[in-house]
Every structure is written in C-alpha cells, then in structure tokens.
Amino acid sequence: MHSTARGPSLGGCRFWAYADARAAMRDALRLSEGMTWKSAVAGLPLGGGKGVIMSHPGEALSAARRRDALLDFGDTVALLGGSYVTAEDVGTSTADMTTIAERTPHVAGLAAADGGSGDPSPFTALGVLCSIEAALEQHTGSPRLGGRSVALIGLGHVGLPLARALTAAGAEVLVADIDPARQADAAALGARWVRAEEAMTAQVDVLCPCALGGILDHESVPALQAPIVAGAANNQLASAEVAGLLTARGVLWAPDFVANAGGIINIAAEFEPQGYDPDRAAARVREIGTTMRMILADAAAAGVTPLAAAMALARRRVAEGARATSS
C-alpha cells in the first residue's frame, strides 16, 4: 500500500514470474505508487496499492497449486481490513478474483454474473484511445485518427480492443507481440505484423506501448521515429529523467498513469451508491481525454515535461485528500 490519503488503496493483483523476491517486491512497490497517482489524477476517492503473486521463470503451476496461491493471497488481503482492495491485473482474471473473494470481500472487478463490472480491459483501451486523440490534437491540431499510423506493442487484453478501435477509426496499425499466436488476431484486424524492434523504431504517427513497462530508456528514445508515444503499459519510463529526454527529442509523451486509468475508473464505479452502470462508467472514462488535454497544454505552457505536469496535478490532489482526512 502506497497511500490511503484519498481512500482505500485499490490496485490489481499481478501473477507473474520473477527472477527473485527482490524483483517482485520492487515491482509491487513501484506499481502501488503508480496507482496512487493514477487514482488521484482521475479524481477518484481511492489511494494506491498493488498485489503481486510471484512464480518462478519456467514454472508451470497446476490448477490446484494456482488456486492455493490465490486463496493465500485472499487471506492476506483480508488481514488488511479493507485498507487495500484488489482487482485483476497482468496474469489474473475475473475468475481469479472470484477465487480470491472466497477469502475476502475486499475484491473489485468480479465477473458481471457475480455482481461486479467484469473485465476492465475494454475500459482501459477506451481511455488510451481518448489519450491518443488528445495527444494528436496537441501535436497536430486535430484528434482525427483516420489516415494516421500507429505501432502497437502488445496485443493482449487491452491491446486487442484498442487495436480494433484504432482500425475502426481508420488508422493504419502495425502490431507486435511476443506471442506469435497473436498474428491471427492481427490478420483479422487487417493490421501489419512486425517484430517489436521494428515497432519501436517505425516511422508512424503514434507509438503505442501496451505490454510491460520500462520500454523507454536512454537507448530506445534516441531511436524513436514516432513523434507521439501514448499507450496502456504501466511505468513506460525506465526512469523519471527519460521524460526530459523525450521532450528534448521533440517526442510528445502521454503520461501512462493518466492514459491507462480507464480500468480503475470503471472498477471505482462499482462503489457508487446508485450501483454500477457501464454507460456511466464509459462516460467517465472518456473524461480521460479532457484530463490529458489539460496536462499536455499545461506542460507546453509552463515549458515542463508532461510527466511533471501530471505529477503536479496528482500530488495536489493527494495533498487535498490528506487535508480532508485529517480535518
């Protein structure tokens, strides 16, 4: 748990293979902080937390052993008494949340049949789509996707619906994924399949990272050809100073924790007094585009990076939450 200044710390449970426990711990801490800023920028009454279940590289868990791990995780969440609320993330599903819910009520994003909002991925994709449009408008003066080109890395739960939306809007889409089976999805979309290295350096209007983080660093940024980077991946910057490197190269970066907040906005709608409504949730997710426009405009006006402008907004809202809690 990184912060509960604005409310309970909400963040998904990541089930992933790590080289050692230190790497898993670093990931949990880094991701939990990101959730604090994500919820704050989105204006949600929530703090930031994250859960990690660590497996080992090459380890194949049986169904029984995986279930045991999920139940143990549920016991841990229960011990926190509601200060942390879990949900699905990389490596987990709505079915996994149902298993965890056997041990704790502090679970969001359950399947619709179980009273939850279901898979949040399409809402995350919607928020990223709105962010791409906002970045295009800031860079070119028009949010129009028709005739634009996008290199999308990661055709998973978020990347696939996002790719569908991009192609439906008339964009030319290049796709890369570590799973060669995803080529069939790319073909069905009419997207061009490329290697990840090709996607990173493609001469396109937008680079859209939708896989794991750390993709932007001192080696990759100088090779970028896209003038805009806007995607769903968490923690895209290998370090905060890379934000300055992007700006110096004239690359407009849409802060990831703003762009990919659609999933948590959708999940937060489960807590509303009037109950969950997908149309109302989608309308709130589309407000990400307005927030992104404000952040990018503020950054340009102040001569700072989009990261600095987004963090200023996030810290201001967390401070406001802390003052409200203490008063």
Structure, explained:
Keywords: NAD, Nucleotide-binding, Oxidoreductase. This protein is of the alpha/beta class and 327 residues long. The protein has two domains: 9-30 and 50-114, 3-Layer(aba) Sandwich (Rossmann fold); 121-261 and 290-313, NAD(P)-binding Rossmann-like Domain (Rossmann fold, 3-Layer(aba) Sandwich). It is 46% helix and 13% strand. It contains twelve helices and ten strands. The protein has helices spanning 21-41, 63-79, 94-100, 121-140, 159-168, 183-189, 196-200, 242-248, 256-259, 262-268, 278-302, 306-326; strands spanning 9-17, 47-48, 51-55, 84-88, 149-153, 172-176, 192-193, 206-209, 228-229, 252-253. The strands form two sheets. The protein has a six-stranded parallel beta sheet, with helices on both faces. Strands 1, 2, 3 and 4 form a four-stranded parallel beta sheet that branches.
